[in-house]
Amino acid sequence: MNTSITTPAEAWHRLEEGNARFVSSSSEHPNQDALHRASLASGQAPFAAIFGCGDSRLAAEIIFDLGLGDAFVIRTAGQVIDNSVLGSIEYAIDDLNVPLVMVLGHDSCGAVTAAKTAHDTGTMPHGFVRNLVERILPSVISPALPAEPTVNDMVVEHTRQTAARIAEQSHIIAQAVAAENTAVIGVFYHLADGKAELVYSSSPEITAS
């Protein structure tokens, strides 16, 4: 278990170190042995909750070189928030006492691309994909975007907006952030080189390196 990691900054430092190992092809694959697996049978104590896109190339445990019991992971296409996501994060904070919540987006995101296409063409997708697109559209038309924004600009904006919205929509998360027991960060993952880039932080102690 990860009882030694108790602050948001410590949790982010651990994730940064793991990502650096992954980028340099020196992953240690920690906490994946049979003994550790057995030790987790009676309970868990993850040091981070990671809410990321469901893209198959965005496996958080791999890109941050984590093992069993290290992270409480939630995923939806385009890291779109709904009540189940908020409830899951609240559980991670209230019951598992995680000191860090990460929103994890990535370049060339298909869900954000679909939202951009819907905006550009005026045609919404069918089925429940429409629900995803509708929740991403505020990031596609955000005034904070640069002139002639790319899909990746929109992903970064969506990641920032999602990270900020988590605390805005949940008083449980907001209270934990205000008490500095938990921080919420937004991270943009680069598919080609594997680098995880910090793009949002609710804590002044967590900044881009």
TrEMBL record:
InterPro entries, per database record: Carbonic_anhydrase (IPR001765), Carbonic_anhydrase_CS (IPR015892), Carbonic_anhydrase_sf (IPR036874)
Ligand binding (Zn(2+)): C53, D55, H106, C109
E.C. code: 4.2.1.1
Superkingdom per UniProt: Bacteria
Keyword Metal-binding (UniProt): yes
Catalytic reaction equation(s): hydrogencarbonate + H(+) = CO2 + H2O
Lyase is among the record's keywords: yes
UniProt entry keywords in alphabetical sequence: Lyase, Metal-binding, Zinc
The protein's enzyme class: lyase
Listed GO MF terms: carbonate dehydratase activity; zinc ion binding
Family matches, as PROSITE patterns: PROK_CO2_ANHYDRASE_2
Pfam families in the cross-refs: Pro_CA
The protein's required cofactors: Zn(2+)
Comment on bound cofactor: Binds 1 zinc ion per subunit.
GO biological process terms on file: carbon utilization
Family: Belongs to the beta-class carbonic anhydrase family.
Main function: Reversible hydration of carbon dioxide.
Protein name, as recorded: Carbonic anhydrase
